[in-house]
Structures are given as structure tokens and as C-alpha cells.
What we know:
The structure holds three protein chains of three kinds. By secondary structure, chain A is an alpha+beta fold.
Amino acid sequence: MRAEKTTIDRRSFLKAALLAGGGMILQFNWPGAIAAAAENNPTESAPFTLNSYIKIHPDGKVTLFNPNPEFGQNVKTSLPMILAEELDVSWDHVQVEQADFFPERFERQFTGGSQSIRRAWPVLRTAGATARQMLILAAAQHWAVSADEITTDAGILYHKKSDQKLSYGDIASAAALIPLPKNVKLKAIADFKIIGSSKRNVEIDNIVTGKPLFTSDYKKEGMLIAMIVHPASFGREITAIDDKAVRQMPGIKEVFIMEPVLKDYKKNGFDVFTYEQVAVIVGNTTWEVMQAKKKLILQLSSPTGNTRNGKPDFLESTARHYADMEHHSTLPAEVKRRDGDPESAFKKAARIIERTYTAPFLVHNTMEPVSCFADVRADHAELYAPIQAPEFITTTLSARLGLPKEKIKINLARMGGGFGLRAYGHHVIEAAVISQKIKAPVKLMYTREDEATYGIYRPSYSATYRAALDENNQLIGFHIKAGGIPETPLHENRFPAGAIDNYLAEAWAIPSAITIGAFRAPRSNFIASAEQSFLDELAFEMKKDPLDFRLELLKRAKEKPVGQRNDYDADRYAGVIQLLKDKAAILARPAGTGRGMAAYFCHNTYAAVMVDIGMKNNEPYVKQALATLDCGIVINKDAAINMAEGALIDGIGNALYGEQLFMDGVPLKSNFNTYRMIRMNEAPEKIEVHFVENQDNPTGMGEPLFPPTFAAVANALFDYTGKRYYKQPFVKQYLDENKSPVI
Amino acid sequence: MELYKEKRPLGKIRFTVTLSVIALFIIGFVSAFSDETNYAANEEIYATVKKDSIKSVEAFKKVYAVLQSPRCVNCHPSGDIPLQGDDSRLHAMFPKRGVDGKGILTMKCTNCHQTENTAGLKTPPGSPEWHLPSATMKMVFQGRSAHELAKQLVDLKQNGNKDLKALIAHADDGLVKWGWTPGEGRTLPPISHAEFKEAWITWLTTGAYAPTQQGLDGSNLKN
Amino acid sequence: MNSIRINKKKYTVNVDSEMPLLWFLRDHVGLTGTKYGCGVAQCGACVVHLDGEAVRSCVTKMKRAIGKEVITIEGLSEHGDHPLQLAWKDVDVPQCGYCHAGQIMSAAVLLRERLDPTDQDIDDAMTGNICRCGTYSRIRKAIHHAAELQKQKG
Lengths: 743, 223, 154
């Protein structure tokens, strides 16, 4: 077994300190924060200022801090498992706490892009191993023996020769004074005891008993409730409000128009503000403000789009979106990659297969509508924020409030879902600006409708695939032309690029006033659905087994790759498909179902899916699903399976039912009564998840299984109905084509 | 491209009034009462009945149009799951009728449906005693022809043993009347409640004649 | 009397009787385990027991709840050991966790009415509760497991 040495970023260094009352804390410090840390000498401070990764208490209990925001992907359990493994403590002695946003002490506090585990892996292993080494060195001094002779197990240090032992708690205070060791040896993978096992969600007791965990549950003495009212139509702005009726209503304190960001502020990529201004109502209780909202009258401008801001000067509608996308697919587009001579290949082709795939805008529909608590004072601010990317919002917040970053404390509350939406912190800014203006602590609450109609959607996309086949039915050319509103989903260097001699990838985009954002790999989840449906149909037309066809292409990509920039490892990609093939062969297809498969690689993890589709209540549903994944070392097995099951069900639901529609700029679906969500009776009765076993560094689980699920559903629908599904959501097409008898 | 209507053909009934009207002139009429026992139960009311097949069938045309409107048919489904919306699609989350018509387990009608409509578009409508017909008296409207429905409405075995008096009274049932105050965003039945009530009583008190089905039991003329 | 019993404790109701029970629980009593998800009885995050029925508190006005007995997730069991709570832990059901109070409160009525629920019973009872993270297969498993625990408990 290889022992893996990991070093952390050179700019950073670890720092150990005594805890008040004994014990030790191991923390990271980052340049620029040294002064602040010195001011804040941990040996003399109250424990709450000591947020960092590891705290060892005199009684041997260990507190581990989860640096990343939690919204259901279980980082609060899985990241501390990495620390506990290298620290070599018993999981039973561990308690986990959520770290506040503290960039000086934590390397990366961003949850998104399936990167939490991958990016934290070297950092947390080093932190755990360093603390363990310091405990060993302290024990060596205490016993006056060589450190090499000391072993550890479950929070106990042993010197077997002299038959002595000490608990970590006994020696932690001494360990805190040991100079930080360098190049600490990490555990061999074969010695892992915690990593690879299944540890229960550390928050489970609180969840099942309804303890306040979420921002919307937070309450502070004197806190007021605020809600926003935003324009009902994308592309229009508030010009005036009529608040006469609102001001008369019980419990209402303030009504005003607010600018979340000032016009000259240079926004970062996560500063998505759909409207320049929103109206605000502040009152005593949620219900009172909700009632008042209904009485507020907004006056709106005409469409604000023009040639300068590049947005449409008309109000957008879904019919026009699709017509425009259809038109754009016929226009010349930007060439992003060209291998060989695709034009000639298509010219001499004996047969050309061309298919176009489309998908609507999607709404995240996180279960918890967004909220944010802010208490902004003259010289400091405290927030409880559901936010995936605190580091980005802090910059904007600091500029908008006119407070230095270090005077803004952000408590990272558990989020009731994120799926990419909570990377965008407009609510954080709004809450803080409201609190600053009204000079009181405030909790901003969005209604379901406010959130579902605010935007930051998964874009609407279209992709046209063409394949050139020669007279022997062999693939000689491949062309993808993909675009969307307002961005292209194209990833020109992904499979099957690299496997085909003559390859052309083109991109286009149509501007829009509708805001978009991350959505469980937005471009990938569409392009995977299109690509993997097309490859399935292509294999069918070429009379090949669909998985063998993919394996054949991957073999070519490995042995004689075309081009240099192919974004995948052909071996690992083939491995996850082969595992799916093997597992599918022994999983019987239930009678009366159709089977479809797909695979994809994105966000560093390889994923493959098989679904069996049957009928329930006169509609297609997935009766059984199988997934295989290669995400390297699996940290928390059962939690990883849970994530995989969730990604599958989410993918099935969005593929079958998900869509937002527009008329005159107005998003038409604002709640679950019109926006159909997958429910218990539509979820698979059986799900199997298998991991490729290897010792590669761990990668993420949030995104990768979601994208190929859409295509597996489309391919199974073909197997079941004999018809290809090109337009999402698929249930719509099914119902249009299959007039159901009355039941 | 019809992108704005949530189109779901499921459960959509296309009633062909014209067909029944044509049928009625070609073939003649048949009383919906299979026998006259239900009249006999209420001599007083029976005395008011003046048989008039043409008037009766004309009145039932109006009654039928109301009963086939989504406001009525949605809670008189052919299956055990109610319908919803003006397109009479299956009710989201598939609540089941249950023995008493009031739902089962966690999905009792009144767990969501209050005694009054909930404010807002596409929110749960409400009325005291919100329910479906019971499992023993399903009184299906969905998919029933005018002929079938007319016979079924007055059949004691199928109508919960409602005699003429009870049938007349049913026009003023709270849940029936809710159909005319269904809340924001729901279309009303084609005629007013007063017109419906008048047509309903006329139909019943002129012999409750059923429009015949073309080519079916036209010869089954009893009156 | 304008009083209501919540988790076996009596409260005087001095709010607008049009206010939904959900907001009385969350803003006035301080019981935040019951969640706001949609406000229109579509998602089930707000399910509580009103005289034993799994009502959606977001559309249940105070005027209906007054004089009745309410049980919320906080009062489902004294020590967090209702068979469903134990099963939820054993199966490690949640992801984000937001919908689970409502899921458990719905499942509690199911389990009271069906000692050994079938998959069909679970579909019939739980289809009103949305889980956006997609933990449905675990919820199903946990309900079956809870039925076993309930039997063992006797």
C-alpha cells in the first residue's frame, strides 16, 4: 500500500494553541490574517472565537469543525470523518460543529461544483495527521521515549514497550506547545478505519425532533420580519410603489424601495441580482407581512433591454424562446473545436443522422424558501445566512454596507436545499441593507412564489447533433451545435471529442433578461441528456449495443486519441460503463418495462445510469434504477449512496416534469400547484448503487449522477414506447402522443 | 405550439350534446326511472309530477351540461382519485376516495380542503364537509353519457337511496352550491345555480326522462 | 375560550383568527420544527396533527384550530424515540432535512392506521409530502422499519 504524502498550500500554516481550561486547538492561519489572529490570542479568548478544525478537550472528547456550508450533501459528517481518520480518534468521541465563515482559518468554505470533498481531502488529512503527530511528540517528551515507538488507536497513545498509555485529552495541553512538525506522514489507505465506513448524519437527532437548524428558524429579541416584492416580469423595473393600503395594515412598520447593489459596483460572478430595485415591507410577524404584500401595488417600466445592455427590448415568452432557438440552430455559430475535416466527412457521408434536443428553464425549488437574518450596526454586522459561497458575497456585502470584511460575521446556517441556487447571495445583501436602513435586526423571508419567480434558473437550451456514416455504416464525422438562452451548454472537449477523427463543435447564445445560475451542473445536465440520447439512437441506427458503442469509442480515445484537450480519462470512463453493464446484466428488467442507459463524466466523477420505465396512473415512471460511480475513495459510504439516490430521483423528476414557462416576461409557474415535482409514488421502488473500487483521491457526489439520468430516462422511454424523446419535459410529449383512457 | 396551457388529455371528456339532441328526435325518449317506486315513497311530491318527455329531456340537457362541468365532474370521478382543474386532470398527489368518500390515512380531504376556499390561484378550494361520494355510492359523472347519467341519478340503488324529495333537496346541498362559488381562477358551470335548480326540478317533475343513446335502447320505451 | 392545546400544553390564542396555524406555531409559540414550504397545501412540510389528523398547518386557520389538540414534531415523542424517529436515524434518511418533520408527522398517522403498511399504503399516504432532495426510497424503507420497531415494542 502506498502512503500518500500531502502538503497544503505554502501560503498557509498550521497553528496550535492551548484551550482555555486545557486541551488544544489546531487551526490554520492564512496570510493577511496574522494580525487579526494575534489580537485574538486563542489562549485567552472564549472558546467561540477558536473556530478551526480540531479541538481536543481534556476529557478526551474531540470537537471537529465542518468548514463548508451544509445543504444536504452531508459534508458536515463526511469532512470531519477525514479529520477523525488521520487524527486517529474514535468516531464515538467526536462531536461536530459548524464553523462560521472565517476565511483566515479555513482554507475553502464553498460548497458547490461537487468540490467539497475533493478540495478538502489534502487539507483535512494534513490537519488531522499534524495534530496526531503533535500528540505523539508530546507523549514522547512526557515518557522520555522515542516518538517512533509510540502508536495510537482510537484517541489513545500507547508505548507498548513500557506498557504505558495516555488519552489524547491527557496530553493535549502539552501538545499545543509542541513546535509544528513538517511533512507529516499520512495514513496508508489500507489502514483507514473511518473513511470508507458509513457514519450517520451528525445532525440526525436534531432533524427528526424538529430542532431549529435553518435560517428561517432563527429568532432574536427585537427582530422584525421583512419581505420583498419584486417585479412580476423579467425585463421590467419598479418605477414607483403605491403603499397607502399597506401602511394601514396591522403590524407593518416600514415600506420602501431598495437597491441591493449600487449601480457603479463591479459585480462578481455570484452577484446575480435580477432586478435593480425591489420593494421591501417590514413588519412584526411573517403572516402580517405576507398579508401586506398582497396589497402593495408596483408600477413597472417598459422593457429595459437595449443595444447597450444587450438584453431584449421586448418581453420574453416561451413560444418565442423556442422559435428563436430553432432559428439560431440554423445560423453560423462560433467554432469551439474542429478535429480533422468534418465538412468533407459530411459531404461524402452515405447517411447523415441529425437530431435536435431542447429543454426548458428549470427552477431549483429548494424545500426551504430563502431567508436571511441580519443585524447590522454602525461598526459591525452579524448574519445567519444560507449561502453556498460566503467568500464571494462578503466582498459585495462589505462594499454595500461600508463595513470592513472582518467586522461582518456570517454564521453558516444549515440550508433546506441548495442545488446551486444558494451560491447566489442576493438575499444576504438584501437582508443586510434592510437591517442597516431600519436600524434593527431583521429576518428576510421569501415566499415560495417570490423565490420561484425571481429567476437564477437553469437556462433553456437546444443542441443539434449530426453524425456522418459511411456506406459501411461506420461513424466518420460528428457535429454538435449547441446554444441556449442566455448561454451555450457546449463542452467542446468532452466525450465523444477525442474518439472521432472528424469532429466539429459550435456554440451560440441568445440574450435574455431572465437570470440564470448554477443548477446541479446546468450545462452538463442538458448536454449529457442530448449527447447520451443521440449516442443511444446512433448505436441503434448502427445496429450496435449502445454500451458497447460507447466502450468502442472510449477504446479509440484511449489508444489513438484525437486532439490534445480531451476532458476525460478513457479508462475510468470505460470502467464505470463496464460496471454498469455487468450489474445491469444481473438485475432483471421487471415485466412490462423498458430499459435505458447513459453515462457521463463531469465534475471529476464518472457516472453511469440504467433505468427501467413502466406505467403508473397512465403515465411513465421509473420503476427501478441502477447507478455506478467512480468517485475514487468513498468517504462515507451510506451517505454517498443517499446522494446517488437523490441525484437519480432529482434527475428523473426534472426529466419527466420540470419546466418554467413565460408569457410577456412573467414566469408562469410559481409554486408546486403548477410546477410539478416528483413525489413518493413516482420514485423508483428499487435503486441500486455501486462504486468502482480504487484508491484514487476522492471526488464529489453532488452533480455527476444527475446529468446522465435525464438521458437514461429518454432512452428507456424509447425502449418502452418505440419513440425517441427529444423535448423535455418528457411526460408532456408522452401525454401528447398517448391520449390516455379515462381511469 | 401551445406552450401556455398545461395540456393533459387525461380524463378530458368531450360531451357531444348534439349527438344526444339528434338521438332524442330520431328515437324518442325513455324515462330514467326504472320503476315508479321512488315516486311512491313520496305521494305528495309524486302528485306534482306531470309527465312531459320533451320538456323533461330539454331540462336534462341543461342539467347534464352542469354535471359535466369540471366543478361537478372533478369530485364525481370514474376512478377512486378525484380530478382537478378546468382540464379535469387527476388530482396531484393522488388522494384516494376511501370508504366514506372523505379520503384515507394522511390524505383526508379536509386535511387540505378547509370549510372555505383558500385564498389565491390554484389553492385548495373548500366547503364544509368537502368529500367525494362514498365507495358504496360512487355516483360517477366522469365519462357517463346523458342517458346513463339520467338513469343513474334516479336509481335508488345508485343514488344513495335518494327519493324524489331528497333529489330535489340535493340541488341546495352546500357542496353542490360550492360549484358556483369555486374561488379565483375556476370556471363556473355553464348556467347559474338558479337556472340549474330550475332545470333539475323540471327534469325530475316532468318524469325524469333520459335522452336515449343512438342505436342503443331506443326500443326500450316504457312511457 | 380562545385556547388551543399544543403538545399537551395550553396556549391562549390572541392573534387574527384568519392566521394559519403554521405561523402561530412558528412566530408566536416558537415551535419552528413545523416548516413553511409552499403555503398552499402542496408539499406537506407543515403537517401537524390536529385532533389526530395530518392537517397542513399552512392552510389551517386558527379559527379551525382553536379548542383543538395539536401535536407537532416537537411533541411527537417525549424523548425523540417514536418508532419513526428511531427508524429515520437507523436508515439515515435525510439530506437537507427540511421536509422531514412533515414526512414523519404524515408517516405517524399512516403507522397509527396501518400497523404493517404495504408499499401501496405508503404511496397513498406519503405522496402528499415532497422531498426535493429525493430521499423517497429511504423514507419508504424507514416506514417499513418503523413498523417493525413498533411491533417489537408491542
